Every structure is written in structure tokens, then in C-alpha cells.
Amino acid sequence: MDIEDIPAEVRWQIATKASNIASVAQVHALQEVAGEEAADQMECMIMREGGKQAGELAATLGLPAGNAIETSEAWEIMGKILLGPEIESHVVEADENRIVDRITGCAMLNAHQELGAPLAGLPEHCQAYNTNAVESINPRYTQQFSKKMCAGNEYCESTLELKK
Fold this sequence. Notes:
This protein has helices at 8-34, 36-61, 68-83, 107-115, 122-137, and strands at residues 88-94, 98-105, 141-147, 156-162.
């Protein structure tokens, strides 16, 4: 058997799942060694840098990001590439300057649940990644969550809009 005998989609699912599990295990280990506050600060720093990388990769792939809709689509594509196909979302409302998405499937939340890891800090880590991802894809836009599954909501709700 050779690696090429394993379908690319299966390899991608394995790689993203392993990466997500490693990320969750890293945060949990940092919390045990350094304490929750220091671990959260470090993880937010790591996630901010990860978000910036998403923007660089989106540019490398030539993903369009001229308005809110294109920026959101690029953000979603990068999220699925980096975190896995478990991310599920749909648009609630959209125009060229603002888009509201509902996310009903989250690879990072799934990884936390699979490991039985506490969700403390996850909302902030996620926000750090996503804000930086959107702003690096198109610096004219920003993103905020108003609802978060990891904070007990039924779904995540995200607004991507022009900076004020």
C-alpha cells in the first residue's frame, strides 16, 4: 500500500482531526503547567497568528475578497481547509458590506468534546483566530461572534462587516 492509495479527502480528514486534537491537548497541558490565565494568553497569541496565516494562504490561493460576501466565502474555505470539513454554516443575511452566518458544526468544539477537555477559554481562542483570519483576508472587514456553541448556544452566529 502507498499513501496515494488513500483518497485525498480521507488524508485531509485524518490530518485536520489530528491537528485539532493536538491543539486541544496542547491547551489542556498548558493550563495544567502554567495555569489557566497564562495558558489562555498563550493560546490566544497562537490563534491570532493562525488567523494571520489563513489570510496569507487565501491570498496564495487567489481567493476573491473584495466585499463582505467574498471575504466570508474565503474565510469559510480557509476554515474548512485548516480545521476540516466538519465546519458547517449557512448565511442568514448578506449584502456587500455585511454578512451574518450561523455555524452549526465546529471541528474545534468536536475535538474538545472528544477529549473531554474543558471549554474554558475556547470562545476567546476562537474569536482571536477568526477576527485575525478575516482581517488578514481583507483588512477593511472585521468579524465578531454574538452566539457561541462552546459557550452553550445552539449555534454560533457570526457577523462579518466593514470596520467602523
